[in-house]
Specification:
The structure holds two protein chains of two kinds. Chain A is built from 18 helices and no strands. Chain A is mainly α. Classes of the chains: A mainly alpha, B mainly alpha. Chain A: It comes from Zygosaccharomyces rouxii.
Chain lengths: 450, 534
């Protein structure tokens, strides 16, 4: 019932897929030939300027080179740096027929639910009709080209192929069904995992997850969301570690292959040069929220919380130096929020009785954080594709700044009250305490960005 | 810059250096040769990612041969490739290795039976004898095959007949396959226990197999590493176990092995039916008189050679199946006939099975077996209680997980990553909640559970209303008997992993046999009973 967290491919299914796509490719080639549709071969040459954006063919060449390299490495038994996607492995062996097919279609990489609703990007519906004679010709041609590969195929594959080309669907009770001992129990464990997460029985769910990840072949990348949730219920600090583990082990900077039909949206399973993997963003958000709460929480050791927060900021500042985080507005936004939280805490700790250079240093710190927040938000909006309440944040920042100058005269007042007043005046609509404001904001943002 | 790292021999122009350092981001040997294909670059450099070069800054690890794990040197590539080639073996050698692997598995199985099920030491020897007999027959087959091939060669030159050629090719192909699998090992175990008169039946073997106790599934992983590397993938797949014995495969294997090993001539091949009947009676919470009834029925209607292993592959001649058929018929006939002592409510009480929380290992194994045999395991899983889930999970931890192999072929970095992940999710019984671990510890013995079951049945029977009972008509009785029979049949089908049709066929056959013999022997009495039954 639930999808198994591992890839089941047998030689049979692989060959049947290969045959299917080979046939489809043959047909479409012939069809294009008859109708005089050029099939991308005669496209305009790539202009010099965009040479850095590697063209499709080049990319394929590179993939091939990379694959050869990887193969050589696996032969000598030496390490390849990452736990490279196992998912790609079977697809690669399809002799590219499937990839050739999928190359023609755009597959969104962020999700699988991208709808083209921009009226300018509409393409006309294809109205070309084809007569029966011509269709027969195309079919015959397609079949003729298939003869050799069909001759070596097994009987089941042949049956499958002939049935599908005639437009029938073959009911294969064993196809995709977990029927071996191993798969059956993995299936049971998976359903138990989902059921227990659903029932919020974290102990049982934890055990399922712990068992599952110990079974070879089971891919953690398809389960990390559940695992994180379960761990967060049991040991909150550990779940951050897990996410960190995910992003350190599975992040790659290789571009996604356009022509691979991924089972899951690839951003959920791995990153690329252009996409930040989801577990990394989840990790950053979780860190930000936890650590920010830690700063507010008086019971916790404020020193370690501050250290944690500082380390998070350091990490992000390193991350944004390179792709893919460099171009990800979400990461920039998180970075900006970090500075904002920092500005908030520093401005709260600001002692208006200070004088001289100590005062200057303290206020400069706050100002600098505010400036950083603004510049990072600038970065974030310049990348596009990410919306956030700009005016609200601006007001908050102004409030932080006001704490530095606003109450010079009233240094007799209690500090608590002092902050309350400050916070109330700009953010009157929300009427929230400044302590909560940031986290509230972050929460709402988090839900927005998801 | 004196930070040298030990690594592979440089080899450029016979350079003997093993020491490497990094100059300008390139790995350079002691004498200044730059390592090929190893460039360190900045992350900002976009093109470099596309060049497919592996960067390494941290975790410079060296392999067993002293190579850097993360990089490779094209000058050393060739040697490694040569080493790699020709690891798998094919043809007759592979078959020999496959047989050796089977033997290895068989040995582990018999050792498990002796250690865990306290079988006598002689069991091991007997298994060995049967296995040797089997090997001998295989050898004979092989020899015949060779002669046959020579003949084929001669006849083929003179005779160009295509059909004949195909026929011969097919026959040769058949001969090349030994038709052995892991099920054959189970068959050998069963045959040995028959010879020794040990009350182990196919259902026991299947239960232990499917619950992962008896070494069966994934036995390819437990083979010596060198064997596993050499074995072709096809045989590895066979040794993986797949689904386990299905639809009476075990019985057909037994029958086939009987012919091959001349089991009938040289061994005790009479199956001890009393014990199986006793087992069936107990596991279905029937009163002990049913045991006597069944034995009586068998004794009066069977002949001496009825319960002997035979090389017949038809379902009606499988011994264990015959016995279960007798058992089912006994229940049906007795319940039909004796309306006085077995009232309808008694049968109804029998149908109700208790859902017990404390169960013995035996029952857990049984449940696992049932789970593995059902077509839709997820549906069952949804109805489980927490205790059942905990039971299943602890089973998975103690029996299923050990079957999994720690993948030795993982690269070192992957292994480190994996270890870290496992550390994040430790799997200790103390991390699990305490109530279930108590359940885990206080597993009652099978005997206690059996007593509980009988007590439950008694309670169930006495709690039913007497007066309502009398209004129930005869129709109701037949319905109750049928549903009880269906229940038992379903359980037997999974326990013996046969199909329903096979069991039905066996029942039909046995009932015919019973009628036939009863007619012969008990001419006067039998008329009334059959009339009742029909």
């Amino acid at each position: 019932m639930f999808e198994l967290p591992l890839v089941i491919t047998s030689k049979r299914t692989r060959t049947s897929r290969k045959l299917k796509y080979q046939y489809i490719n043959n047909l479409s080639k012939k069809y294009d030939g008859i109708n005089g549709i050029s099939n991308g071969q005669t496209e305009l040459p790539t202009p010099e300027n965009s040479a850095t954006e590697t063209s499709e063919n080049e990319e394929v060449g590179q993939q091939k080179r990379r694959r050869i390299r990887k193969r050589l490495k696996s032969i000598i038994g030496e390490s390849y740096s990452d736990l490279e996607s196992d998912e790609e492995q079977p697809v690669e062996e399809v002799d590219n027929e499937e990839r050739k097919f999928y190359r023609k279609y755009e597959k969104p990489q962020l999700t699988f639910e991208k709808w083209q609703c921009d009226p300018r990007k509409r393409t006309p519906i294809q109205r070309n009709r084809i007569n029966y004679n011509r269709m027969n010709r195309i079919q015959r041609h397609g079949l003729r080209r298939m003869e050799t590969s069909l001759a070596v195929a097994s009987r089941t594959n042949k049956t499958f192929f002939h049935a599908t080309t005639q437009g029938y669907q073959l009911f294969d009770p064993t196809y995709g069904r977990a029927n071996t001992f191993q798969l059956k129990h993995i299936g049971t464990l998976t359903s138990l995992l989902h059921i227990n997460v659903l029932k919020r029985k974290w102990e049982l769910a934890y055990k399922c997850f712990a068992l599952l990840i110990r079974i070879p072949g089971v891919d953690v990348r398809t389960l990390w969301g559940l695992g994180e949730r379960i761990l967060a219920e049991r040991q909150p600090t550990r779940s951050l570690e897990f996410l960190q583990w995910m992003s350190s082990v599975y992040s790659t900077k290789l571009p996604f292959a356009d022509d691979v039909n991924y089972r899951m949206a690839p951003v959920f399973t791995k990153g690329s040069k252009t996409h930040t993997p989801k577990y990394t963003t989840t990790w950053l958000w979780e860190c930000l929220i936890r650590y920010a709460n830690g700063l507010e929480d008086l019971e916790m050791d404020s020193k370690s919380a501050a250290e944690n927060f500082q380390s998070l900021m350091d990490r992000i500042s390193e991350m944004v130096l390179g792709p893919p985080y460099m171009d990800d507005p979400e990461v920039w936004f998180i970075y900006a929020l970090c500075h904002m939280v920092k500005a908030d805490t520093l401005s709260q700790q600001f002692d208006p009785r200070l004088t001289g250079s100590a005062r200057d240093i303290a206020s400069n710190q706050v100002i600098q954080h505010i400036q950083n927040t603004k510049s990072h938000l600038q970065q974030c909006s310049s990348k596009g594709g990410f919306t956030f309440p700009k005016r609200y944040i601006a007001r908050q920042l102004a409030a932080f700044e006001a704490r530095l100058y606003g109450k010079i005269d009233a240094y007799d007042m209690d500090e608590e009250e002092d902050e309350d007043n400050d916070a109330h005046s700009p953010s009157d609509e929300s009427g929230m305490y400044p302590e909560n404001l940031d986290t509230q904001l972050i929460d709402s943002e988090a839900s927005l960005s998801d | 810059m004196s930070a040298y790292i030990r690594g592979p021999i440089c080899g450029v122009g016979n350079c003997p250096s093993r020491l490497w350092r990094i100059i300008d981001g390139r790995r350079t040997c002691q004498y200044g040769h730059v390592m090929e294909g190893d460039v360190e670059f900045n992350d900002e450099d976009e093109d470099a990612t596309n060049a497919g070069v592996v960067t390494r800054r941290l975790n410079l690890t060296t392999g067993a041969t002293g190579n850097f794990q993360s990089s490779f040197n094209s000058s050393q590539l060739q040697n490694s490739q040569n080493e790699e080639g020709g690891k798998k073996i094919f043809g007759p050698e592979a078959r020999l290795l496959f047989i050796r692997s089977l033997q290895f598995t068989l040995k582990r199985q018999s050792r498990w039976l002796i250690e865990e099920q306290k079988l006598p030491q002689e069991f091991d020897k007997l298994v060995k004898i049967i296995w040797m007999k089997l090997l001998k027959s295989l050898e004979n087959d092989d020899n015949n095959d060779e002669f046959g091939e020579q003949e084929d060669g001669q006849t083929f030159d003179s005779n160009e007949d295509q059909d004949r050629f195909h026929e011969l090719a097919r026959r040769r192909k058949d001969k090349n396959r030994y038709r052995l699998s892991l099920v054959s090992t189970l068959a050998i175990l069963y045959m040995s226990s028959v010879q020794l008169g040990i009350p182990i039946y196919t259902c026991d073997l299947i239960k232990w197999t499917m619950s992962g106790r008896l070494p069966y599934f994934k036995s390819s992983e437990k083979l010596p590493e060198s064997w596993r590397v050499q074995l072709p993938n096809y045989y590895l797949g066979v040794l993986e176990g797949g689904k386990g014995p299905q639809e009476g495969q075990l019985f057909t294997h037994i029958a086939r092995l009987c012919t091959k090993t001349d089991f009938i001539k040289e061994f005790n091949h009479r199956v001890n039916y009393e014990c199986l009947i006793f087992k069936l009676v107990l596991s279905n919470v029937l009163p002990p008189e049913f045991y006597l009834f069944a034995i009586q029925l068998i004794r009066t209607t069977s002949e001496g050679h009825d319960f002997e292993l035979n090389p017949d592959t038809k379902p009606q001649s499988w011994i264990d199946l015959q016995i279960t058929a007798y058992f089912l018929l006994t229940i049906r006939w007795v319940l039909m006939y004796d309306t006085e002592s077995y009232q309808v409510r008694w049968i109804h009480a029998l149908i109700q099975r208790q859902k017990r929380q404390e169960v013995s290992t035996d029952t857990i194994d049984q449940n696992i077996l049932k789970l593995s045999q059902t077509q839709k395991p997820t549906q069952k899983v949804f109805e489980w209680t927490d205790e059942e889930m905990a039971q299943y999970l602890s089973w998975a931890e103690e029996a299923f997980l050990p079957l999994q192999r720690n993948d030795e072929r993982l690269k070192i970095d992957q292994r480190i990553a994996k270890r870290k992940l496992h550390k994040l999710f430790p799997l200790e019984s103390e991390t699990f909640n305490t109530t279930s671990s108590q359940v885990f510890q206080s597993k009652p013995s099978f005997l206690n559970e059996l007593q509980e079951r009988y007590a439950f049945f008694q309670g169930q029977f006495e709690s039913t209303d007497h007066r309502r009972e009398e209004q129930r008509v005869e129709d109701d009785r037949i319905k109750a008997i049928n549903s009880f029979e269906n229940l038992i049949t379903q359980e037997l089908v999974t326990e013996f992993s046969i199909s329903l049709q096979q069991l039905r066929l066996a029942i039909k056959n046995i009932s015919h046999r019973c009628f036939h013999r009863l007619k012969q022997e008990l001419n006067d009495k039998q008329t009334s009973t059959t009339a009742d039954v029909e």
